[in-house]
C-alpha cells in the first residue's frame, strides 16, 4: 500500500474520530507529497516519499527548538504532538549505538582522519540513514568521532 493510500485511510479515520490534530498533520503530509508528485511529474518512489517525510519532520523539529528557545510552551506541546504523528509514517529510528557503528564504518571506508573530511563522511553516511535518523544527531556524532 502506498503512502498516499495510507494517508487517505488515516485521514478518514481521523475525520470519523474527530481527531483534529491528526487530521491536520495527515492533510499537511498528503499535500506535501502531492505537491512533490506534481513537481516531479510522476508518482513518487518510496525513497522520494521518505525524503518528503524527512523534510516535514525536520521542519517540525526546527520549529520545536525555536519555540522552546522563545518560551512558547503552548506551541511546544502542539509541535510535539505533530512530531509524534509524523513519526508513525517514518521507518523505525536507529539507536545511537547503531548510528555510531554506521558512522565509524563510513569513517574507515573513506579513511577520514580529521574534521576536514567531514563532508566525505557525511556523503557516505546520510544515504544509509535517510529517514532513520535526525541529521543534526548524525552531524554531531560525525564531528565528535572525527575530532578524537
Automatic annotation (TrEMBL):
Molecular function via GO: carbon-nitrogen ligase activity, with glutamine as amido-N-donor; transferase activity
Keywords: Transferase
Pfam family, one: YqeY
Gene3D superfamilies: 1.10.10.410, Uncharacterised protein YqeY/AIM41 PF09424, N-terminal domain
Cited InterPro entries: Asn/Gln_tRNA_amidoTrase-B-like (IPR003789), GatB_Yqey_C_2 (IPR023168), YqeY/Aim41 (IPR019004), YqeY/Aim41_N (IPR042184)
Keyword hit for Hydrolase: no
Record's protein name: Glutamyl-tRNA(Gln) amidotransferase subunit E
Organism: Enterococcus columbae DSM 7374 = ATCC 51263
Amino acid at each position: 500500500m502506498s503512502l498516499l493510500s495510507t494517508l487517505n485511510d488515516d485521514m478518514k479515520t481521523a475525520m470519523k474520530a474527530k481527531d483534529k490534530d491528526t487530521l491536520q498533520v495527515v492533510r499537511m503530509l498528503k499535500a506535501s507529497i502531492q505537491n512533490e508528485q506534481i513537481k516531479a511529474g510522476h508518482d513518487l518512489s518510496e525513497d522520494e516519499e521518505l525524503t518528503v517525510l524527512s523534510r516535514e519532520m525536520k521542519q517540525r523539529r526546527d520549529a520545536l527548538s525555536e519555540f522552546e528557545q522563545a518560551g512558547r510552551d503552548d506551541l511546544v506541546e502542539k509541535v510535539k504532538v505533530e512530531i509524534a504523528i509524523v513519526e508513525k509514517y517514518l521507518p523505525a529510528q536507529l539507536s545511537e549505538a547503531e548510528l555510531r557503528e554506521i558512522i565509524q564504518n563510513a569513517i574507515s571506508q573513506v579513511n577520514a582522519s580529521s574534521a576536514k573530511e567531514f563532508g566525505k563522511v557525511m556523503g557516505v553516511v546520510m544515504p544509509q540513514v535517510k529517514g532513520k535518523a535526525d541529521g543534526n544527531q548524525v552531524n554531531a556524532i560525525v564531528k565528535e568521532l572525527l575530532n578524537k
